[in-house]
Amino acid sequence: ALSTGDGCGHTLLTPHSGTLSSRNYPGTYPNHTACRWRLQAPPGTSLLLAFGDVDLEPSEHCARSFLLLADSQAGTAYGPYCRNAVPATPLLVTNSSSVTVLFNSTSHRSGRGLLLSYATSQHPGTHYSQEHIRGLEQALGPLAVCFSVYCPAGCKGIDGDIWGNPSQGYRDTSVLCKAAVHAGVIADELGGQVTLSRQKGITVYDSAFANGLHSKRGSLSEKRLLFHRACHLPLPACGDMLEVAAFNASSWWHEVDVLGQDRAWVAERAALGTDGHSWAAEPSSETAWLELDLGTRRNITGIITKGSSEHHDYYVRSYRVSSSRDGKNWKPYRGSGAQEDKVFEGNSDSHGEVFNAFIPPIAARYIR
């Protein structure tokens, strides 16, 4: 799958799902641009396309700004689409594993452009591009308590807000698949099947920074969304912390304060929830690392980091992760199918907690 042209906006395309939008979406798309996306699914499967938004300035026969989809295998085309000729249904089921999406703009005054997502026929479940719970209620009925949807890759970058966090759940007006990325149940670069339930709302939804996304602090709602492994099987709580048998580090800071008192910022102080100061590397260190020995091989699904708010405004803004089964041979974490080491977004202040999920999980005894 690939994209070319000067009219391309947020785009994440994988063989199994993806999300694409025109440049500036949801702001007005620019004049005299074009973008061509070629979507290619695995052989033997077909593409399902979901129209999240098609808002192109109207013209006769959509001859000016338009969206056109071509199925080269079947020799058929869908569109052209614009504001006065929108798709008949929000979901287009093709019989082809290859579809070319063409967006073209000329001089115009208004229009958000387009938001489109896709998945392949091998993924069961209802498929949405920009999900709000009211859309789910229309599809599933108001009495649906637990349901499953397929979230395409690229949900993290679409427009829309989320309120809440993984432990509390999310306000029911949150963009669903964006909330799933925030909760760490899917990786944005992969997408995947999501199982969730609607439960009674709560008074306040606390904000959090997780998996590269900020959620907002939200007020009372009638319902909230909770993610599950399967219906009626809740996700393991992040409060189920793994025991650390020993801490090690590349170095530690031996601080002498203004009163001449010693303070040792040793590795053992890195445990989350430790009173007072934390671990810190020796100030001149350029390639610092912190090592956790879990005592035995464990399945590690995520990490929570926090700065040291004791006297110093210290925190780690980004980091990489490596794992080892024997403490000698180290494997960098890259995520599914990635060719480069994954860089995790860390903290932006010394007091807030930041959660990052490992998808897939890490099976190891040692973590750096």
TrEMBL record:
Membrane topology: Single-pass type I membrane protein
Primary location class: membrane
Keyword list, A-Z: Disulfide bond, Membrane, Phosphoprotein, Transmembrane, Transmembrane helix
InterPro entries reported for this sequence: CUB_dom, FA58C, Galactose-bd-like_sf, LCCL, LCCL_sf, Neuropilin_MCO_CoagFactor, Sperma_CUB_dom_sf
Residue ranges of domain CUB in the record: 8-121
A GO molecular-function descriptor: signaling receptor activity
Domain LCCL: residue ranges: 134-225
Any one GO CC term of the record: plasma membrane
Superkingdom, natural source: Eukaryota
Signal peptide: none
Location(s) in or outside the cell: Membrane
Record keyword Ubl conjugation present: no
Cystines in this chain: C8-C35
All residue ranges annotated as the F5/8 type C domain in the record: 231-368
PANTHER family registered for this protein in UniProt: DISCOIDIN, CUB AND LCCL DOMAIN CONTAINING 1, F5/8 TYPE C DOMAIN-CONTAINING PROTEIN
Protein name per Swiss-Prot or TrEMBL: DCBD1 protein
Organism: Eubucco bourcierii (red-headed barbet)
